[in-house]
Amino acid sequence: MEVVRNFPDSELLADIRDRHKLDKAVRVLYQSYFDSLSWYVLNNSGNIQDAEDIFQEVIVLFIDLVQKNKFREESTIKTFLYALNRHAWLNELKKRGRTLAREEKYENEKDQTTADMSRLMVEREEKAAILKLVSDLGENCKKILLLFYYENLSMKEITEQTDYENEQVVRNKKYKCLKALEKMINENPPLKITLKNMLHGS
Question: If you write DSSP's letter for every residue of 31-73 in order, what string do you get?
């Protein structure tokens, strides 16, 4: 692999704006900044997969900003990427904290199926597959699950956006929806194996 050293910011920015040189620019970004940016995630409660995911998000955002001429070059690329990386990881930790607190408060006594599905629902790369299954459950289940897992709304907020009487009714409905989703998965062996492997990091 080509090792990139002392690649000028001006040249890197020009390559990002040139679609014919974008692949080269991406390689330079990874080789130049991944190790240092991932160190921040690894030393703040993250693992290597977290570091890779956050770095990818940061690079995609940075490239978009540069191509739309929204990067004003008031700082170096290194400083700017560090700031994006820190902001993205702190937001991810905050989101995980909310999800964990919610599950501990409302679902402490539920079975392992609920816990597994909760982790499943926050996997960004599996959104499309899960959304299709959720849609098959019907509009009520779809609305509750999307508001809870994707929009991070509380039971009180979901109750206000639906026709259910109170938070307990919404919690019970969500649990029934998850059980129905589990049943659908169990009836589709290939999908069950795929999701099981994903849940256990296989």
Answer: HHHHHHHHHHHHTTT--HHHHHHHHHHHHHHHHHHHHTT----
